[in-house]
UniProtKB/TrEMBL annotation:
Protein's recorded name: Cyclase
Record's keyword annotation contains Signal: yes
Family: Belongs to the Cyclase 1 superfamily.
Keywords, ordered alphabetically: Signal
GO BP terms in the entry: L-tryptophan catabolic process to kynurenine
Single GO MF annotation: arylformamidase activity
InterPro entries: KFase/CYL, KFase_sf
Length: 268
């Protein structure tokens, strides 16, 4: 029983041939948020025994699409790109994925902007199929602390003063130029794929215009990294956003699947 609880705590589950890691933060009223967005507001509405016969529970919640672990639909920053319900399912399920570890750089500079060189360390990225790149800044350890995670003390709704790492404009341009036919999504373990200091959200603009979606507030990348045969190994990602008509984004469940047969950046 103790062992089972420990497994749940790490969001890991084993099956005979694969290891599953849940890369999703649990939503609650304490969930960290981007200041301009409506916070997650959960109300436990009913939890009762009906006439002493059976138990019945039902809750309600209100939230921005962009709270918690979520997907930014390309339409979020590009009026000609896909809304959340329009993203083809083959770009969400069973996608080869790679973690680029930039923790060291971000530890030295909380406003670090991920460079082209950081990406090149992991090349050649030469898969023949769709893929997702996840950037691991190490910021997920602050997730339950809004001021640490967002880098600002004030609780008002202005985005000023945010401090956390993100991609540089050059890195976003590079990804689009080099990989846009195959790169379906870019994820990060912070509030935004743009660094906190960004004013115009250029990285969003560049990627989303090319129908590359964003994954924000991704959890447990360190757990995946520990389980990989080597840091540059690939694994499978399943990304399951809520299907909202005209959605600019949606909360999503992200699950990593690590299989023995995938290693060394090639699918055997
Ligand atoms: Zn978003």
């Amino acid at each position: 029983m103790k062992h089972f609880a420990a497994l749940l705590l790490l969001s890991i589950e084993y099956s005979s041939c694969a290891l599953y890691v849940d890369l999703t933060h649990t939503l609650s009223n304490k969930t960290s948020y981007f200041p301009t967005q409506t916070r997650f507001n959960f109300t436990e509405q009913t939890a009762t025994w009906v006439n002493g016969n059976y138990f019945y529970a039902s809750n309600t919640f209100q939230t921005s699409e962009h709270i918690g672990t979520h997907l930014d639909a390309p339409y979020h920053f590009s009026n000609t790109s896909w809304t959340i319900d329009q993203i083809p399912i083959e770009r969400l399920i069973s996608i080869d994925s790679l973690i680029i570890d930039v923790r060291k750089q971000c530890k030295q500079n909380k406003n670090y902007e991920i460079t082209v060189e950081d990406i090149k360390q992991y090349e050649p990225i030469n898969l023949n199929k769709y893929f997702i790149i996840l950037f691991y800044t190490g910021w997920d350890v602050y997730y339950s602390n809004q001021s640490m995670y967002s880098g600002r003390i004030s609780n008002d709704n202005s985005p000023d003063g945010l401090q956390f790492p993100g991609l540089s404009v050059k890195a976003a341009d590079y990804l689009v130029k080099k990989y846009h036919q195959k790169l379906v999504g870019v994820g990060i373990d912070t509030l935004s794929i743009d660094a906190g200091q960004s004013k115009q959200f250029d990285v969003h603009q560049i990627l989303l215009k090319n129908n590359i979606y964003g994954l924000e507030n991704v959890a447990s990348l360190g757990t995946v990294l520990k389980e990989l045969s080597q840091p540059t190994a690939y694994f499978i990602l399943h990304v399951l956003p809520i299907k909202i008509e005209k959605g600019t984004g949606a909360q999503c469940r992200i699950v990593a699947v690590i299989q023995d047969k995938i290693s060394n950046g090639t699918v055997q």
